[in-house]
Design brief:
This protein is of the alpha/beta class. It contains eleven helices and five strands. The chain starts with a helix and ends with a helix.
Length: 259
Amino acid sequence: MSRDTLYQQVRSHLAYLKLGAAAEALPTQLDTALKTKATHTEFLERLLAIEVDATEARRHAGRLRFANFPSPWRLEDFDYTAQPSVDPALMRDLATCRYAEDATNVLFIGPPGVGKTMLAIALGHCAVDAGLRTYYTTAADLAARCRKAAVEGRWATTMRFFNGPGVLIVDELGYLPMPAEDANALFQVVSQRYLRGSIILTTNRGVGAWGDIFADTTIAAAMLDRLLHRSVVINITGDSYRMRTHRARHQRLTKGEAI
């Protein structure tokens, strides 16, 4: 069999096995192997490494699409000097995603505008990078989706969906009161994920005020019991980023008018 025929067969085999990146890189890698006098094993390792990298890139892109993140925020984007109540060392530890190994929850508690959502999404990106299936939703959207599922007879399917990700981010709990039906839906999600998958939750209400959110102290207590049993709680204090930016802009404008 001629060398050209053998080459075409190898490329055809790679394409048939859906190793597209390896098939595309075959000519270049073959030339490199001949020039460097690489062994057959070395040549094969380099070719397969290209396919592995391409496969991981596709999987990462798929996890990122599924995650439903509303922004690309990363931990390096967070201004720790503006929020000294946030411990950088703790955030670096959470970025390793070790908390997800034993289904530990992460709760960000603080007033509006202090960076809770930014940190939650940044940890979500870390989870995606670590190969964890991750999903972002607001508390209001989660409740609305569950209400619709109940009406359409898809309750069990929706519960399985929210129980599936290794990390579930529930944002903005407490900004709007939750009627009994919505509170029950959120409780069911928390209950099913208990000790099975991590929840990253952001809220503007301290745990003592959760009874006001749900108008049901029993559900609030049961939910907190499951969330706090194995958790990292981060209380963020300080000014809102938006209000601080507004004041700085106002001061600049005032100085400009004075000049």
